[in-house]
């Protein structure tokens, strides 16, 4: 009987697979037929128009209010524009779409894009903070909520996820990514794509098309200076940086965005190897590629051609849509006549844009995302606010907690000091959402609400300037990434630094404990915000030293979008909580952690350097012929080390404390040897040895001991986040196969080579236990 049931189930499953493949094939055939028919009716100018993506500044500023009489309206009606980005007003977007559908000759709908990075209406923690949760379900749910909110106001294409791997804290855009590890970055990329696109059926009106950026290697800009040169071998690129882009492709991402940087002497926007050979031909990507803002235009500054030439090079290299430059609009017809591009080049790019619109269901219903009722009901829902708070609780890294100073008692007399203590709008970080109905919560508000009716109190003092440079502080205090000024800049440096510190010291001395809220503000992170020395700014450092000198216990809460150099702080401050930019509910969520209503479980996804000279730095560096132990303090001449600082970071990759403690057993392998076609289980028992329930991320690293090419000292390959009650223990098991041990060799072949591998398991990259596995 069981055999018959099994046979029936097997046949049913096989039939379902066949039907699924057949359905996909039929949809593809229908799409191809529809688009071929449409393109047969299009003029050359209309095809070129589909490649054009201007910013909707005229509409945002109220120019013509999106009417047909406006300059942009006329161009849309004339078929000169394929999409718009930067719009959030659903009514205006509806009017614009009506022009495209009802006034243009062929009625081709527009696609609407936007930078939805860590929330649409409700801002969640910044992506770097999200990555420290090591929780793929949490990240996917955040992306799903972002998609639901964005789609409700008319956005159907989001410029996210940003998957650039970065080893340099000087780079401001490290805030937008997932840190320094390619494997973890790949898992997070897949979670984002799945959250935005769910099962890949973009005909649902609450799914949006993902746009993976910045392709490729943007996070490796020299010296951490934005837009700078990237120079590395293909082997290093494939092993250390490319995996997240590939993972997003495998997850079905619908589009990619080219990066600003060059690679192998060719800007990414004109790089045939990146766009065609690797992304399309090797990985099988079948969506479309858009440039970044003025990406084609900027290639003239790179010196690879005049305006028509760079336009032709971009199109030939696989660019399908031109963001803002309008060089494809201006020069493609001329380039066709002069033989710089072919009709096939134009048709291929046009087809890819039309396919994206077809997949989004816009030809069936061009107004599916423009439901005015949804735009009023969905954004800012209380459930999304609650989700943002719970998410932020899991995205704060406890870096130090000497003598269990944290959690705080709610009946304590707390001095809250620092320029970041009462800055609600900075809690959301760069590239944040835009909520009309919900206000961000400052740390001051969060603490005050937490101690209300508990017998405690919060005494506040601003404490210091944000920055020494008054003019620079006025810039970063502005709105819109510092591009627009607002009234708040009138208070910049209104009081002297000495006066602010004196007031803070008085408040500190009258309190039981000091919470110092210091770091960067939101506009010190994101695009165009490289810092030559990523430290807590000097005025705030001066304040902190004065607070420590009072003898009161100090808890440092760091707000930042990058790893900061905290060597002095680690030596002198008893408790440090890295809160990143925790989102719209940041003040509440940080208070939840400080008072112990939430037990911190986040772990770093970027190494924190001890000094500036260590940058760029990553845990997965290679060995040298004269290696020196990263955590050995003594200097040894003729070894690969510094005279004045140890090699290792202040806080290693994967590091993060909890209000409880964990104990790891030795690593056990199910077998000491593994054939190439076999598998081995690596396990460790983890026990919660503290008095509180908690969550721990168990990390598995490998080291390829001998290979035909040099390999890193460590590579993350697996991880599991587990919940443990106080006193509970669990055995965590990982299955390893040859696939987990592969790398790109000197010939760029993806191989697992026989030999010994160290299997390392622990709570972070530094504190691991090891066993040797031999692959035959």
Concise account of the structure shown:
The chain has 776 residues and is of the alpha/beta class. It has 23 helices and 27 strands. α8 (182-197) packs parallel to α10 and α18 (443-451) crosses α23.
Which sequence of strands runs across the widest sheet? 2-3-4-5-6-9
Assembly state of the chains shown: single chain
β-strand number: 27
- The best one-word shape is globular
Q: Low-confidence parts lasting 5 or more residues at pLDDT below 50?
A: 1-10, 12-21, 58-65
Count, helices: 23
Largest sheet: 6 strands, parallel
* Helix proportion range: 25-40%
Rounded to the nearest angstrom, the radius of gyration is: 27 Å
Arithmetic mean of pLDDT: 94
Strand content: 15-25%
* Class from helix and strand fractions: alpha/beta
State the end-to-end CA separation: 42 Å
Description of the molecule:
The structure is a single chain. The chain is α/β, with parallel strands linked by helices. Strands 2-3-4-5-6-9 form a 6-stranded parallel β-sheet. Strands 11-16-15-14-12-13 form a 6-stranded mixed β-sheet, with helices on both faces. A 5-stranded mixed β-sheet has the order 19-27-26-21-22.
Fill in the keyword field for this structure.
776 residues, alpha/beta, six-stranded parallel sheet, six-stranded mixed sheet, 27 strands, globular
């Amino acid at each position: 009987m069981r055999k018959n049931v099994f046979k029936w189930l097997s046949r049913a499953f096989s039939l379902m697979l066949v039907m699924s493949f057949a359905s996909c094939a039929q949809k593809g055939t229908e799409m191809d037929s529809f688009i071929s028919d449409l393109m047969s009716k299009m003029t050359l100018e209309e095809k070129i128009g589909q490649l054009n993506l201007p910013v909707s500044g005229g509409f945002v500023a109220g120019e013509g209010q999106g009417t047909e009489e406006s300059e942009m309206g006329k161009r849309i009606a004339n078929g000169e524009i394929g999409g718009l980005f930067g719009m959030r007003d659903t009514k205006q977007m509806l009017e614009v779409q009506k022009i495209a559908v009802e006034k243009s000759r062929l009625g081709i709908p527009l696609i609407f894009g936007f930078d939805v990075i860590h929330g649409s209406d409700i801002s969640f923690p910044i992506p770097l903070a999200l990555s420290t949760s090591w929780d793929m379900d949490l990240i996917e749910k955040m992306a799903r909520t972002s998609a639901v909110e964005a789609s409700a106001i008319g956005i159907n294409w989001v410029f996210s996820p940003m998957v650039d791997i970065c080893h340099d804290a000087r780079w401001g855009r490290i805030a937008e990514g997932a840190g320094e590890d390619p494997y973890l970055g790949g898992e997070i990329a897949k979670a984002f794509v799945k959250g935005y696109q769910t099962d890949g059926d973009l005909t649902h009106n609450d799914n949006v098309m993902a746009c993976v950026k910045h392709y490729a290697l943007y996070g490796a800009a020299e010296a951490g200076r934005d837009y700078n040169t990237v120079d590395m071998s293909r082997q290093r690129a494939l092993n250390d940086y490319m995996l997240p882009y590939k993972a997003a492709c495998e997850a079905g991402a619908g589009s990619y965005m080219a990066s600003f940087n060059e690679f192998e002497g060719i800007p990414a926007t004109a790089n045939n190897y990146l766009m065609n050979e690797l992304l399309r031909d090797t990985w099988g990507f079948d969506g479309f590629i858009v440039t970044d803002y003025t990406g084609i235009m900027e290639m003239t500054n790179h010196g690879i051609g005049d305006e028509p030439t760079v336009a032709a090079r971009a199109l030939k290299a696989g660019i399908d849509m031109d963001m803002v430059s309008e060089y494809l609009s201006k020069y493609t017809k001329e380039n066709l006549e002069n033989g710089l591009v072919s009709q096939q080049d134009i048709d291929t790019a046009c087809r890819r844009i039309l396919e994206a619109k077809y997949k989004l269901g816009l030809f069936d219903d061009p107004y599916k995302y423009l439901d005015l009722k949804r735009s009023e009901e969905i954004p800012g829902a209380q459930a999304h606010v609650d989700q943002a708070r719970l998410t932020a609780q899991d995205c704060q890294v406890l870096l130090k907690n000497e003598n269990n100073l944290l959690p705080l008692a709610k009946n304590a007399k707390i001095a809250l000091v620092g320029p970041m203590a009462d800055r609600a709008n900075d809690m959301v970080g760069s590239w944040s959402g835009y909520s009309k109905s919900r206000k961000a919560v400052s740390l001051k508000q969060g603490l005050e609400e937490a101690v209300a009716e508990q017998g405690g109190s919060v005494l506040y003092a601003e404490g210091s300037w944000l920055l020494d440079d008054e003019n620079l502080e006025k810039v970063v205090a502005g709105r819109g990434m510092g591009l627009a000024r607002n009234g708040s800049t009138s208070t910049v440096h209104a009081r002297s630094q000495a006066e602010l510190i004196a007031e803070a010291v008085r408040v500190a001395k009258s309190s039981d404990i000091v919470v110092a809220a210091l770091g960067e503000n939101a506009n010190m992170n994101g695009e165009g915000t490289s810092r030559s020395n990523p430290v807590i700014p000097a005025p705030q450092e001066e304040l902190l030293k004065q607070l420590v000198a009072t003898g009161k216990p100090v808890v440092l809460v760091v707000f930042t979008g990058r790893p900061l150099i905290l060597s002095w702080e680690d030596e002198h401050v008893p408790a440090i909580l890295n809160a990143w930019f925790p989102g719209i509910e940041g003040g509440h969520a940080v208070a939840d952690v400080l008072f112990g209503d939430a037990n911190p479980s986040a772990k770093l996804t970027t190494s924190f350097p001890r000094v500036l000279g260590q940058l760029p730095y990553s845990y997965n560096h290679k060995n040298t012929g004269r290696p020196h132990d990263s955590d050995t303090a003594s200097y040894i001449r003729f070894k690969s080390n510094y005279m004045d600082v140890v090699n290792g970071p202040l806080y290693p990759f994967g590091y993060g404390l909890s209000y409880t403690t964990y104990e790891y057993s030795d690593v056990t392998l199910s077998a000491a040897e593994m054939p190439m076609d076999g598998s081995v289980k690596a396990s460790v028992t983890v026990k919660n040895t503290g008095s509180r329930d908690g969550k721990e991320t168990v990390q598995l690293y490998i080291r390829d001991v001998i290979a035909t090419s040099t390999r890193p000292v460590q590579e993350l390959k697996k991880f599991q986040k587990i919940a443990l009650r106080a006193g509970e223990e669990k055995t965590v098991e990982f299955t390893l196969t040859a696939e987990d041990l592969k790398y790109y060799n000197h010939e760029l072949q993806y191989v697992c080579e026989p030999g010994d591998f160290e299997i390392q398991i622990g709570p972070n990259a530094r504190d691991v236990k090891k066993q040797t596995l031999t692959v035959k």
